[in-house]
Write a structure and sequence with these properties.
The chain is of the alpha+beta class. The chain has one domain. It is built from 4 helices and 10 strands, in the order H-E-E-E-E-E-E-H-E-E-H-E-E-H. The chain has a 5-stranded antiparallel β-sheet, covered by helices on one side. It has a 3-stranded antiparallel β-sheet with strand order 6-7-10. The chain has a two-stranded antiparallel sheet with strand order 3-4. It is globular, with a radius of gyration of 20 Å. The N terminus is likely disordered.
Length: 193
């Protein structure tokens, strides 16, 4: 009887194991489509993404109102590419902020205004970093028209614990977040086998 029970359980589990690559591909397709307006994503292998944001990335302003006073924090993620092994992402720390990309936002802001861009923050598990290629944003925006090599805008390798991706469309950001979270969980399940 035990043999039949084990055989039945293995038959039930086998289809779910074989579905993992298809499930990951579906999640990847959602991420790729939802990020298309902000950059590109390619798969380097079954569980590693290469994300290439459009350059230059926007300067993002995040308001915080406390005791009736609004202060601003400014973010820029000058990333040419980020290599993202999915098993290194902490899916519990994937979050978002609505940010402003208009340079005059701080002057025109009224409490309750919602930012024009969604910034999705992705952090690694403790002690892990993502390999990136960064650039000097000021050098890039001040280059004259025409082709330039990466040294002309100061591209160099770096490692980061967290990074932000921007989305002009909030629904696309939400779709990306969900697909990324699901893909990370799938990658971790496969890594444990």
């Amino acid at each position: 009887m035990k043999k039949y029970l084990l055989a039945a359980i293995s038959c039930l589990l086998l289809p779910s194991v074989s579905c993992l690559p298809q499930d990951f591909q579906a999640r990847f397709n959602v991420m790729k489509a939802s990020y298309a307006g902000s950059g590109s994503i390619v798969m380097l292998d079954d569980h590693t993404l290469l994300i290439q944001p459009n350059m230059p990335g926007p300067l993002c302003a995040l308001p915080k109102t406390q005791n009736g006073k609004t202060t601003w924090t400014y973010y820029t993620f000058p990333l040419a590419s980020i290599t993202v092994p999915l098993a290194l992402v902490d899916e519990t720390l994937i979050g978002e902020n609505r940010v402003f990309t208009d340079p005059a936002a701080a002057k025109a802001y009224k409490p309750g205004d919602v930012g024009d861009t969604t910034m999705v923050i992705i952090a690694g598990v403790p002690g892990k970093q993502f390999h990136t290629l960064t650039y000097d944003r000021e050098r890039l925006v001040n280059l004259p028209p025409g082709p330039h090599d990466s040294s002309s805008y100061g591209q160099e390798p770096d490692n980061v614990e967290a990074f932000g991706l921007t989305f002009a469309d909030h629904d696309s950001a939400r779709a990306f977040e969900k697909a990324l979270r699901d893909a990370v969980v799938l990658a971790k399940v496969e890594a444990r086998r």
